[in-house]
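Final report, Chapter 2: Outcomes

The project's central promise was a pipeline that accepts a single protein chain and returns its three-dimensional structure in a standardized token representation, suitable for archiving and comparison. That pipeline is now operational. To close this chapter, we reproduce one record exactly as it appears in the project archive, with the input sequence first and the structure output second.
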Amino acid sequence: MGLEIAAFILIVAILYGIAVARWAAKARRTRRREVQLNGMLAKLHGKKIQEATRDFGEPSEIVFGSSGARLYIWKEPAGPRLPRGSGIVVITVNVDPADTVTESSWKTLYAEGV
């Protein structure tokens, strides 16, 4: 009887350890992605939009403003320099009529209940 209880406790402890390790790895990937995206977007300010398309690929959507300014939107960028993380990343870049990046931001969208 004592051996079965010890085996049960050992199995539960192993499963708990695996769950904690997976959670820690996911958190580490998410933090790494945050740091990398913040750095990439900070470098874009004042640069030409071509640098953003080089880093993130073609945008999912481009919204044209009345003054000639544009809003570039990337959803779940497949850029080779982006680490994995949870959720869907949406990157937005505002560009003036001279193709210069004036503002950039990003956010992660999570599914409900996740």
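Archive annotation: The chain has a mean pLDDT of 87.
This record, like all others produced under the grant, will remain available to the consortium after the project formally closes.
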